[in-house]
Amino acid sequence: MEVTAEKRSQLVSYACDELLVPLWKGEQLSQVYPELEAAFAGSLGGLQQEGEIAGEAKEVTVIHGLNRIAAKKLLVVGMGEPGKFDFVAARNAWGRAAKTVASKGKAKIVAIDLRTTEHLGSERLAQAVTEAFGLAEYNYEGYRQKAKREFAPIAAVRILAADDAASAVEAGVLRGNALVSGTNLARTLVNEPANYLTPRALKDAAVAVAERYGMTVEVLEKAKLEELGMGGVLSVAKGSEQEPYVVAIKYQGRETWDDVIGLVGKGVTFDTGGISIKPVAGMEDMKSDMGGAAAMIGALEALGQMKPKVNVLAVIGTVENMPSGTAFRPGDVITTMSGKTVEIITTDAEGRLVLADCITYAKEQGVSCIVDAATLTGGIVVALGHYCSGAMTNNQELMNELLGAADTAGERLWQLPTFEEYRSLNKSRFADLKNSGGRYGHGIIGGVFLQEFVGDTPWVHLDIAGTAYTATAGDMQPAGGTGVMTRTIAEFVAGRSQS
Protein backbone atom coordinates (compact mmCIF):
# COMPACT_ATOMS: atom_id res chain seq x y z
CA MET A 1 0.00 0.00 0.00
CA GLU A 2 1.34 3.41 -1.00
CA VAL A 3 0.55 6.46 1.13
CA THR A 4 1.18 9.85 -0.46
CA ALA A 5 0.34 13.50 0.15
CA GLU A 6 -1.49 15.55 -2.47
CA LYS A 7 -2.77 19.10 -2.76
CA ARG A 8 -6.38 19.44 -1.67
CA SER A 9 -8.67 20.42 -4.53
CA GLN A 10 -12.40 20.24 -5.15
CA LEU A 11 -13.57 17.10 -3.38
CA VAL A 12 -16.60 16.74 -5.65
CA SER A 13 -14.38 16.28 -8.70
CA TYR A 14 -11.64 14.16 -7.08
CA ALA A 15 -11.63 10.77 -8.81
CA CYS A 16 -10.99 7.76 -6.56
CA ASP A 17 -12.71 4.63 -5.36
CA GLU A 18 -13.56 5.97 -1.93
CA LEU A 19 -13.43 9.53 -0.58
CA LEU A 20 -13.19 9.74 3.21
CA VAL A 21 -14.12 12.90 5.10
CA PRO A 22 -13.92 13.41 8.89
CA LEU A 23 -16.76 14.75 11.00
CA TRP A 24 -16.59 15.68 14.68
CA LYS A 25 -19.54 15.33 17.00
CA GLY A 26 -21.55 18.55 16.99
CA GLU A 27 -20.49 19.59 13.47
CA GLN A 28 -22.99 20.02 10.67
CA LEU A 29 -21.90 18.13 7.58
CA SER A 30 -23.71 20.57 5.31
CA GLN A 31 -21.73 23.48 6.76
CA VAL A 32 -18.34 21.75 6.79
CA TYR A 33 -18.71 20.35 3.26
CA PRO A 34 -21.21 22.56 1.42
CA GLU A 35 -19.92 21.42 -1.99
CA LEU A 36 -20.69 17.78 -1.13
CA GLU A 37 -24.06 18.76 0.32
CA ALA A 38 -24.90 20.52 -2.93
CA ALA A 39 -23.77 17.55 -5.03
CA PHE A 40 -26.05 15.24 -3.05
CA ALA A 41 -28.94 17.72 -3.28
CA GLY A 42 -29.15 18.27 0.46
CA SER A 43 -29.47 14.59 1.34
CA LEU A 44 -26.34 14.53 3.55
CA GLY A 45 -27.87 17.01 5.94
CA GLY A 46 -31.01 14.91 5.92
CA LEU A 47 -29.07 11.81 6.94
CA GLN A 48 -27.59 13.76 9.82
CA GLN A 49 -30.98 15.03 10.94
CA GLU A 50 -32.27 11.46 10.95
CA GLY A 51 -29.36 10.39 13.15
CA GLU A 52 -27.63 8.18 10.58
CA ILE A 53 -24.60 10.46 10.70
CA ALA A 54 -23.63 11.80 14.13
CA GLY A 55 -19.84 12.15 14.13
CA GLU A 56 -19.52 9.64 16.97
CA ALA A 57 -16.06 8.16 17.51
CA LYS A 58 -15.32 5.31 15.07
CA GLU A 59 -18.66 5.74 13.29
CA VAL A 60 -18.37 5.16 9.53
CA THR A 61 -21.24 5.94 7.16
CA VAL A 62 -20.95 4.69 3.57
CA ILE A 63 -22.76 6.66 0.85
CA HIS A 64 -22.66 5.60 -2.79
CA GLY A 65 -21.59 8.35 -5.17
CA LEU A 66 -24.16 7.50 -7.87
CA ASN A 67 -22.28 9.80 -10.28
CA ARG A 68 -23.05 12.83 -8.10
CA ILE A 69 -19.34 13.04 -7.25
CA ALA A 70 -16.26 11.67 -9.00
CA ALA A 71 -15.57 9.19 -6.19
CA LYS A 72 -17.46 5.90 -6.32
CA LYS A 73 -18.26 6.13 -2.61
CA LEU A 74 -18.25 8.78 0.09
CA LEU A 75 -17.42 7.68 3.63
CA VAL A 76 -18.16 10.01 6.53
CA VAL A 77 -15.82 9.05 9.37
CA GLY A 78 -16.82 9.96 12.92
CA MET A 79 -14.05 11.52 15.01
CA GLY A 80 -15.94 11.85 18.30
CA GLU A 81 -15.87 14.83 20.64
CA PRO A 82 -13.37 17.56 19.64
CA GLY A 83 -12.16 18.01 23.23
CA LYS A 84 -11.19 14.32 23.47
CA PHE A 85 -9.56 14.13 20.06
CA ASP A 86 -5.87 13.23 20.21
CA PHE A 87 -3.41 11.05 18.31
CA VAL A 88 -4.84 7.80 19.66
CA ALA A 89 -8.42 8.86 18.94
CA ALA A 90 -7.42 9.86 15.42
CA ARG A 91 -5.66 6.58 14.75
CA ASN A 92 -8.58 4.59 16.16
CA ALA A 93 -11.10 6.47 14.04
CA TRP A 94 -9.11 6.10 10.84
CA GLY A 95 -8.35 2.48 11.74
CA ARG A 96 -12.08 1.72 11.80
CA ALA A 97 -12.40 3.51 8.46
CA ALA A 98 -9.52 1.48 7.01
CA LYS A 99 -11.16 -1.77 8.09
CA THR A 100 -14.45 -0.65 6.56
CA VAL A 101 -12.74 0.21 3.28
CA ALA A 102 -10.92 -3.12 3.15
CA SER A 103 -13.85 -5.29 4.24
CA LYS A 104 -15.33 -5.70 0.79
CA GLY A 105 -14.27 -5.63 -2.82
CA LYS A 106 -11.02 -5.35 -4.71
CA ALA A 107 -7.94 -3.21 -4.18
CA LYS A 108 -8.91 0.44 -3.95
CA ILE A 109 -7.54 3.94 -4.26
CA VAL A 110 -8.62 5.93 -1.23
CA ALA A 111 -8.52 9.70 -0.72
CA ILE A 112 -8.69 11.31 2.72
CA ASP A 113 -9.52 14.92 3.47
CA LEU A 114 -7.07 15.93 6.20
CA ARG A 115 -8.63 18.36 8.66
CA THR A 116 -6.49 19.42 11.59
CA THR A 117 -7.62 20.48 15.05
CA GLU A 118 -6.29 22.74 17.77
CA HIS A 119 -4.65 19.77 19.48
CA LEU A 120 -3.44 17.79 16.46
CA GLY A 121 -1.48 19.36 13.62
CA SER A 122 -0.87 18.17 10.08
CA GLU A 123 2.24 16.07 10.77
CA ARG A 124 0.86 14.07 13.68
CA LEU A 125 -2.52 13.67 12.00
CA ALA A 126 -0.90 12.40 8.79
CA GLN A 127 1.16 9.98 10.90
CA ALA A 128 -2.02 8.74 12.60
CA VAL A 129 -3.73 8.15 9.25
CA THR A 130 -0.67 6.35 7.85
CA GLU A 131 -0.35 4.11 10.89
CA ALA A 132 -4.08 3.37 10.94
CA PHE A 133 -4.19 2.15 7.36
CA GLY A 134 -0.82 0.38 7.50
CA LEU A 135 -1.64 -1.49 10.71
CA ALA A 136 -5.21 -2.30 9.68
CA GLU A 137 -4.12 -3.75 6.34
CA TYR A 138 -1.59 -6.17 7.87
CA ASN A 139 -2.27 -9.78 6.93
CA TYR A 140 -0.28 -12.87 7.91
CA GLU A 141 -0.97 -15.52 5.29
CA GLY A 142 0.98 -18.33 6.95
CA TYR A 143 1.50 -21.67 5.24
CA ARG A 144 -1.87 -22.53 3.73
CA GLN A 145 -1.80 -24.03 0.23
CA LYS A 146 -4.13 -21.32 -0.97
CA ALA A 147 -3.26 -17.91 0.41
CA LYS A 148 -6.24 -16.20 1.98
CA ARG A 149 -6.73 -12.57 2.89
CA GLU A 150 -9.43 -11.64 5.37
CA PHE A 151 -9.65 -8.19 3.79
CA ALA A 152 -9.04 -6.75 0.35
CA PRO A 153 -5.73 -4.91 -0.03
CA ILE A 154 -5.80 -1.13 -0.39
CA ALA A 155 -3.72 -0.08 -3.38
CA ALA A 156 -3.09 3.54 -2.41
CA VAL A 157 -4.03 6.14 0.18
CA ARG A 158 -3.87 9.78 -0.87
CA ILE A 159 -3.91 12.34 1.92
CA LEU A 160 -5.37 15.63 0.68
CA ALA A 161 -4.02 18.70 2.45
CA ALA A 162 -3.48 22.42 1.92
CA ASP A 163 -0.33 23.59 0.14
CA ASP A 164 1.21 25.09 3.28
CA ALA A 165 0.90 21.75 5.08
CA ALA A 166 2.58 19.65 2.39
CA SER A 167 5.98 19.27 4.06
CA ALA A 168 4.43 18.49 7.46
CA VAL A 169 2.13 15.88 5.94
CA GLU A 170 5.01 14.25 4.07
CA ALA A 171 7.04 14.07 7.30
CA GLY A 172 4.11 12.45 9.10
CA VAL A 173 3.66 9.92 6.31
CA LEU A 174 7.36 9.00 6.38
CA ARG A 175 7.36 8.54 10.15
CA GLY A 176 4.12 6.59 10.07
CA ASN A 177 5.38 4.30 7.32
CA ALA A 178 8.58 3.59 9.26
CA LEU A 179 6.66 2.67 12.41
CA VAL A 180 4.21 0.53 10.44
CA SER A 181 7.08 -1.33 8.75
CA GLY A 182 8.70 -2.05 12.10
CA THR A 183 5.47 -3.09 13.81
CA ASN A 184 4.36 -5.37 11.00
CA LEU A 185 7.80 -7.00 10.83
CA ALA A 186 7.58 -7.71 14.56
CA ARG A 187 4.07 -9.11 14.11
CA THR A 188 5.22 -11.48 11.39
CA LEU A 189 8.16 -12.72 13.45
CA VAL A 190 5.85 -13.47 16.38
CA ASN A 191 3.34 -15.22 14.11
CA GLU A 192 5.90 -17.54 12.54
CA PRO A 193 5.74 -21.19 13.72
CA ALA A 194 8.69 -22.24 15.87
CA ASN A 195 9.75 -24.96 13.42
CA TYR A 196 10.34 -22.16 10.90
CA LEU A 197 11.44 -19.39 13.24
CA THR A 198 14.25 -21.22 15.00
CA PRO A 199 16.96 -19.32 16.90
CA ARG A 200 19.01 -19.37 13.70
CA ALA A 201 16.11 -17.91 11.71
CA LEU A 202 15.50 -15.18 14.29
CA LYS A 203 19.20 -14.37 14.23
CA ASP A 204 19.04 -14.18 10.43
CA ALA A 205 16.04 -11.81 10.61
CA ALA A 206 17.96 -9.46 12.89
CA VAL A 207 21.03 -9.60 10.65
CA ALA A 208 18.89 -8.86 7.58
CA VAL A 209 17.56 -5.64 9.13
CA ALA A 210 21.07 -4.58 10.14
CA GLU A 211 22.46 -5.19 6.66
CA ARG A 212 19.51 -3.48 4.97
CA TYR A 213 20.30 -0.20 6.72
CA GLY A 214 24.09 -0.41 6.93
CA MET A 215 24.25 -1.18 10.64
CA THR A 216 27.19 -3.05 12.15
CA VAL A 217 26.32 -6.55 13.31
CA GLU A 218 28.17 -9.20 15.30
CA VAL A 219 26.79 -12.70 15.83
CA LEU A 220 28.03 -14.55 18.91
CA GLU A 221 27.80 -18.29 18.31
CA LYS A 222 28.06 -21.08 20.86
CA ALA A 223 31.86 -21.16 21.07
CA LYS A 224 31.99 -17.40 21.68
CA LEU A 225 29.19 -17.63 24.26
CA GLU A 226 31.23 -20.26 26.10
CA GLU A 227 34.33 -18.08 25.91
CA LEU A 228 32.41 -15.14 27.39
CA GLY A 229 30.90 -17.31 30.12
CA MET A 230 27.28 -16.72 29.13
CA GLY A 231 25.97 -19.47 31.38
CA GLY A 232 22.43 -18.10 31.35
CA VAL A 233 22.02 -18.35 27.58
CA LEU A 234 23.89 -21.65 27.35
CA SER A 235 21.98 -23.33 30.18
CA VAL A 236 18.58 -22.56 28.67
CA ALA A 237 19.74 -23.86 25.28
CA LYS A 238 21.13 -27.15 26.63
CA GLY A 239 17.93 -29.13 26.14
CA SER A 240 17.46 -28.19 22.48
CA GLU A 241 19.14 -29.32 19.28
CA GLN A 242 18.92 -25.68 18.13
CA GLU A 243 22.10 -23.66 18.64
CA PRO A 244 21.84 -20.46 20.73
CA TYR A 245 22.90 -17.04 19.44
CA VAL A 246 23.44 -13.56 20.77
CA VAL A 247 23.19 -10.85 18.11
CA ALA A 248 24.73 -7.41 18.74
CA ILE A 249 23.69 -4.66 16.31
CA LYS A 250 25.15 -1.16 16.30
CA TYR A 251 23.20 1.73 14.81
CA GLN A 252 25.47 4.78 14.65
CA GLY A 253 23.64 8.02 13.99
CA ARG A 254 26.33 10.33 15.40
CA GLU A 255 29.93 10.96 14.41
CA THR A 256 31.33 9.64 17.68
CA TRP A 257 30.38 6.35 19.33
CA ASP A 258 29.29 7.62 22.74
CA ASP A 259 26.10 8.07 24.77
CA VAL A 260 24.89 4.71 23.44
CA ILE A 261 21.32 3.54 24.08
CA GLY A 262 21.22 -0.16 24.95
CA LEU A 263 18.26 -2.23 23.76
CA VAL A 264 17.96 -5.84 24.93
CA GLY A 265 15.40 -8.36 23.67
CA LYS A 266 14.42 -11.83 24.84
CA GLY A 267 14.24 -14.22 21.89
CA VAL A 268 13.05 -17.61 23.16
CA THR A 269 11.64 -18.97 19.90
CA PHE A 270 9.71 -21.69 21.70
CA ASP A 271 9.24 -22.20 25.41
CA THR A 272 8.00 -25.59 26.57
CA GLY A 273 9.02 -24.67 30.10
CA GLY A 274 11.84 -27.20 29.83
CA ILE A 275 11.93 -29.89 32.54
CA SER A 276 9.38 -27.76 34.45
CA ILE A 277 7.09 -28.33 31.49
CA LYS A 278 4.06 -26.14 30.85
CA PRO A 279 0.47 -27.46 30.61
CA VAL A 280 -0.51 -28.57 27.12
CA ALA A 281 -3.39 -26.08 26.87
CA GLY A 282 -2.11 -22.99 25.11
CA MET A 283 1.45 -24.24 24.70
CA GLU A 284 1.21 -23.63 20.94
CA ASP A 285 1.21 -19.90 21.66
CA MET A 286 4.66 -20.18 23.23
CA LYS A 287 6.06 -19.52 19.77
CA SER A 288 5.44 -15.90 20.78
CA ASP A 289 7.99 -16.02 23.61
CA MET A 290 10.40 -14.10 21.40
CA GLY A 291 8.13 -11.05 21.33
CA GLY A 292 10.72 -8.88 23.08
CA ALA A 293 13.34 -9.67 20.44
CA ALA A 294 10.74 -9.06 17.73
CA ALA A 295 10.00 -5.62 19.19
CA MET A 296 13.69 -4.72 19.14
CA ILE A 297 14.16 -5.97 15.57
CA GLY A 298 11.04 -4.07 14.52
CA ALA A 299 12.31 -0.93 16.25
CA LEU A 300 15.61 -1.24 14.36
CA GLU A 301 13.64 -1.52 11.10
CA ALA A 302 11.79 1.69 11.96
CA LEU A 303 14.96 3.48 13.06
CA GLY A 304 16.71 2.46 9.86
CA GLN A 305 14.06 4.43 7.97
CA MET A 306 13.77 7.32 10.44
CA LYS A 307 17.56 7.80 10.74
CA PRO A 308 17.69 9.57 14.13
CA LYS A 309 20.98 11.13 15.23
CA VAL A 310 21.61 8.74 18.11
CA ASN A 311 23.73 5.69 18.82
CA VAL A 312 22.10 2.36 19.64
CA LEU A 313 23.41 -1.06 20.60
CA ALA A 314 20.73 -3.75 20.35
CA VAL A 315 21.50 -7.11 21.96
CA ILE A 316 19.21 -10.04 21.20
CA GLY A 317 19.57 -13.41 22.88
CA THR A 318 17.82 -16.23 21.04
CA VAL A 319 17.40 -19.82 22.24
CA GLU A 320 14.84 -22.61 22.42
CA ASN A 321 13.79 -24.02 25.81
CA MET A 322 13.18 -27.76 25.50
CA PRO A 323 13.13 -30.77 27.85
CA SER A 324 15.61 -33.55 27.11
CA GLY A 325 18.32 -35.65 28.69
CA THR A 326 20.73 -32.74 28.32
CA ALA A 327 18.40 -30.00 29.60
CA PHE A 328 19.18 -27.96 32.70
CA ARG A 329 17.25 -28.97 35.81
CA PRO A 330 15.61 -27.51 38.90
CA GLY A 331 18.26 -27.46 41.59
CA ASP A 332 21.13 -26.74 39.21
CA VAL A 333 23.41 -23.80 39.97
CA ILE A 334 24.66 -21.88 36.94
CA THR A 335 27.18 -19.06 36.53
CA THR A 336 26.15 -16.08 34.42
CA MET A 337 28.41 -13.81 32.40
CA SER A 338 28.45 -11.34 35.28
CA GLY A 339 29.95 -13.97 37.58
CA LYS A 340 26.78 -14.11 39.68
CA THR A 341 25.54 -17.63 40.37
CA VAL A 342 21.88 -18.59 40.07
CA GLU A 343 20.03 -21.53 41.59
CA ILE A 344 17.43 -22.91 39.19
CA ILE A 345 14.09 -23.26 40.95
CA THR A 346 12.13 -23.73 37.73
CA THR A 347 13.35 -24.12 34.17
CA ASP A 348 10.24 -22.20 33.11
CA ALA A 349 11.79 -18.97 34.41
CA GLU A 350 14.35 -19.10 31.62
CA GLY A 351 13.93 -15.72 29.95
CA ARG A 352 15.52 -13.82 32.81
CA LEU A 353 18.64 -16.01 32.51
CA VAL A 354 19.02 -15.12 28.84
CA LEU A 355 18.40 -11.44 29.55
CA ALA A 356 20.88 -11.42 32.45
CA ASP A 357 23.73 -12.34 30.11
CA CYS A 358 22.56 -9.95 27.38
CA ILE A 359 22.32 -7.09 29.89
CA THR A 360 25.82 -7.86 31.15
CA TYR A 361 27.13 -7.90 27.59
CA ALA A 362 25.49 -4.54 26.82
CA LYS A 363 26.96 -3.04 29.99
CA GLU A 364 30.45 -4.25 29.08
CA GLN A 365 30.05 -2.56 25.69
CA GLY A 366 29.60 0.75 27.53
CA VAL A 367 25.95 1.64 26.97
CA SER A 368 24.66 4.68 28.86
CA CYS A 369 21.22 3.18 29.56
CA ILE A 370 19.37 -0.07 28.98
CA VAL A 371 15.80 -0.79 27.91
CA ASP A 372 14.86 -4.46 27.79
CA ALA A 373 11.68 -6.02 26.43
CA ALA A 374 10.50 -9.53 27.18
CA THR A 375 7.48 -11.77 27.47
CA LEU A 376 8.87 -12.43 30.92
CA THR A 377 6.17 -13.43 33.40
CA GLY A 378 2.66 -14.76 33.67
CA GLY A 379 2.45 -12.57 36.75
CA ILE A 380 2.28 -9.44 34.63
CA VAL A 381 -0.76 -10.87 32.84
CA VAL A 382 -2.47 -11.47 36.18
CA ALA A 383 -1.67 -7.90 37.23
CA LEU A 384 -2.45 -5.98 34.04
CA GLY A 385 -4.31 -8.31 31.69
CA HIS A 386 -3.92 -8.10 27.93
CA TYR A 387 -4.35 -4.36 27.36
CA CYS A 388 -1.32 -2.87 29.07
CA SER A 389 2.39 -3.71 29.31
CA GLY A 390 4.27 -3.50 32.60
CA ALA A 391 7.40 -1.47 33.29
CA MET A 392 9.99 -1.29 36.06
CA THR A 393 13.04 0.90 36.54
CA ASN A 394 15.95 1.99 38.69
CA ASN A 395 15.86 5.50 37.19
CA GLN A 396 12.67 7.57 37.17
CA GLU A 397 13.97 10.05 34.61
CA LEU A 398 14.50 7.25 32.09
CA MET A 399 11.13 5.75 32.99
CA ASN A 400 9.45 9.08 32.32
CA GLU A 401 11.02 9.10 28.85
CA LEU A 402 9.59 5.65 28.15
CA LEU A 403 6.16 6.57 29.50
CA GLY A 404 6.18 9.66 27.30
CA ALA A 405 7.25 7.62 24.28
CA ALA A 406 4.42 5.16 24.96
CA ASP A 407 1.94 8.05 25.04
CA THR A 408 3.36 9.36 21.78
CA ALA A 409 3.12 5.91 20.21
CA GLY A 410 -0.38 5.28 21.54
CA GLU A 411 0.66 2.18 23.51
CA ARG A 412 -0.31 1.54 27.13
CA LEU A 413 2.45 1.16 29.73
CA TRP A 414 2.12 0.96 33.53
CA GLN A 415 4.93 1.37 36.05
CA LEU A 416 5.31 -1.20 38.83
CA PRO A 417 7.43 -0.80 42.00
CA THR A 418 10.88 -2.25 42.66
CA PHE A 419 10.95 -2.08 46.45
CA GLU A 420 13.89 -3.67 48.24
CA GLU A 421 11.62 -6.29 49.82
CA TYR A 422 10.93 -7.74 46.36
CA ARG A 423 14.64 -8.09 45.66
CA SER A 424 15.12 -10.12 48.84
CA LEU A 425 12.75 -12.78 47.45
CA ASN A 426 15.33 -13.72 44.81
CA LYS A 427 18.01 -14.64 47.37
CA SER A 428 19.15 -18.29 47.45
CA ARG A 429 20.69 -20.51 50.12
CA PHE A 430 22.94 -22.16 47.54
CA ALA A 431 23.85 -19.36 45.13
CA ASP A 432 23.86 -15.59 44.80
CA LEU A 433 20.32 -15.64 43.42
CA LYS A 434 17.50 -17.99 42.53
CA ASN A 435 15.52 -17.67 39.32
CA SER A 436 12.07 -17.75 40.90
CA GLY A 437 11.10 -15.91 44.05
CA GLY A 438 7.58 -17.19 44.52
CA ARG A 439 4.10 -16.76 43.14
CA TYR A 440 2.92 -13.50 44.68
CA GLY A 441 4.18 -10.39 42.92
CA HIS A 442 5.79 -12.66 40.33
CA GLY A 443 5.82 -10.00 37.62
CA ILE A 444 7.77 -7.65 39.87
CA ILE A 445 10.05 -10.39 41.19
CA GLY A 446 11.08 -11.27 37.63
CA GLY A 447 11.87 -7.64 36.91
CA VAL A 448 13.97 -7.08 40.02
CA PHE A 449 15.91 -10.26 39.22
CA LEU A 450 17.13 -8.44 36.10
CA GLN A 451 17.95 -5.40 38.21
CA GLU A 452 20.66 -7.47 39.94
CA PHE A 453 22.61 -7.44 36.66
CA VAL A 454 22.06 -3.79 35.76
CA GLY A 455 24.00 -2.15 38.58
CA ASP A 456 23.95 1.64 38.42
CA THR A 457 23.19 1.82 34.69
CA PRO A 458 19.83 3.56 34.13
CA TRP A 459 17.41 0.80 33.13
CA VAL A 460 13.80 0.17 32.21
CA HIS A 461 12.29 -3.30 31.92
CA LEU A 462 9.23 -3.82 29.71
CA ASP A 463 7.22 -6.98 30.40
CA ILE A 464 4.99 -7.67 27.40
CA ALA A 465 3.82 -11.18 28.31
CA GLY A 466 0.18 -10.10 28.24
CA THR A 467 0.34 -7.86 25.19
CA ALA A 468 2.67 -9.48 22.62
CA TYR A 469 0.04 -11.89 21.34
CA THR A 470 -3.74 -11.64 21.15
CA ALA A 471 -6.50 -14.14 20.47
CA THR A 472 -8.97 -11.44 19.44
CA ALA A 473 -8.88 -9.13 16.45
CA GLY A 474 -9.46 -5.37 16.42
CA ASP A 475 -9.67 -2.69 13.75
CA MET A 476 -5.90 -2.35 13.45
CA GLN A 477 -4.90 -5.67 14.97
CA PRO A 478 -5.66 -9.13 13.61
CA ALA A 479 -5.44 -12.06 16.00
CA GLY A 480 -1.84 -13.11 16.60
CA GLY A 481 1.35 -11.11 17.09
CA THR A 482 0.83 -7.47 18.00
CA GLY A 483 4.29 -5.96 17.56
CA VAL A 484 3.73 -4.24 20.90
CA MET A 485 6.41 -1.82 22.13
CA THR A 486 8.02 -1.57 18.69
CA ARG A 487 6.64 1.93 18.21
CA THR A 488 7.28 2.95 21.82
CA ILE A 489 10.94 1.94 21.62
CA ALA A 490 11.39 3.65 18.25
CA GLU A 491 9.72 6.83 19.53
CA PHE A 492 11.91 6.74 22.65
CA VAL A 493 15.10 6.49 20.60
CA ALA A 494 13.95 9.13 18.11
CA GLY A 495 13.01 11.40 21.00
CA ARG A 496 16.58 11.23 22.24
CA SER A 497 17.66 12.51 18.83
CA GLN A 498 15.28 15.48 19.01
CA SER A 499 16.35 16.41 22.55
TrEMBL record:
Protein origin, superkingdom: Bacteria
Record-linked Pfam families: Peptidase_M17, Peptidase_M17_N
Known EC number: 3.4.11.1, 3.4.11.10
Catalytic residues (positions): K278, R352
Domain Cytosol aminopeptidase: 184-489
CC cofactor note: Binds 2 manganese ions per subunit.
A GO biological process held by the record: proteolysis
Family statement: Belongs to the peptidase M17 family.
Protein name stated in the entry: Probable cytosol aminopeptidase
Source organism: Brevibacillus gelatini
Lineage of the species this protein comes from: Bacteria, Bacillati, Bacillota, Bacilli, Bacillales
